[in-house]
Amino acid sequence: MQRGQESLDAVKVRTLPVQVAAHLTRRIVSGDVEDGRGPSELDISREFGVSRVVARETLKILASLDIVEVAQGRRVVVRPPAEWDYLSPLLIEWMPAEIVGELLQELHQMRVLLEPELAAMAAVSVTDETLDRLRGEVDRMSALEADPDAYLEVDHEFHMEICRAADNRILDRIMYSARWLGTASRRITNEAPAALCRATADHTEIYQALVARDPDRARAAMRKHLSNNSTLLAEKEQQTKRAARRR
Questions:
Q1: CB-based contacts of 108-115 (< 8 A; 24+ apart in sequence)
Q2: How many CB atoms lie within 10 A of CB 142?
Q3: pLDDT, tens digit (0-9, with 9 covering 90-100), for 25-56
Q4: For the whole model, what pTM was predicted?
Q5: Which of 94, 114, 176, 247 could share a disulfide with 25, CB 3.0–4.6 Å?
Q6: SS3 call for 151
Q7: Transmembrane stretches, by residue range (predicted)?
Q8: Whole-number Å distance between alpha carbons of 228 and 199
């Protein structure tokens, strides 16, 4: 059996181009490419036994993730990893665990840079209607501390409400685009003992600062909340790297 066919048989729930794109992405990540050359339509068709239409769609997926550059009449080129679309849920799904851990650390750095200032901006412009929604979300968090998956959804919405209250469309889109990584990050930080109880207390403190319409207090409360998560993410990344070295 061809190595490409082994991968296709392993996953049946994805469309064929997505399955092939996943296999090729993992191969590229592992460094199994020659001189930065990506696979052509013909290469893909031959290895995986798929039609040229499937091969073409596969390359479109890889190009949409900025993994390869496809130009008419030229060979397919693998782009530098720094340029890949790490905000795509597909790409995150296909990355090795140790790289995902690094990306979550980088996401956290972004959140530390942006979210305290978003909270300060929101404190100045937040409406009573938004405060009512935030109050409801804090109440739901308190009731959902035994249900991490449901808690995660409310947690995400709480932060997006603050982002929307800051009234900056560009920052709103940046935060929204990072939601897949944000979900992965919250799943890790929510695993720690009493993590959800502490998170509810942090969110309550942020909410109270917004009610007071105090930007300095809101900034400090958000920074404290994010700081509480830093250690948990760092510990998880180290565990993942140790496991990878043992393999």
A1: 108/185, 108/226, 108/229, 108/230, 108/233, 110/178, 111/182, 111/226, 112/223, 112/226, 112/227, 112/230, 114/171, 114/174, 114/175, 115/159, 115/162, 115/163, 115/175, 115/222, 115/226
A2: 16
A3: 999 999 888 778 899 999 999 999 999 999 99
A4: 0.79
A5: 94
A6: helix
A7: none
A8: 9
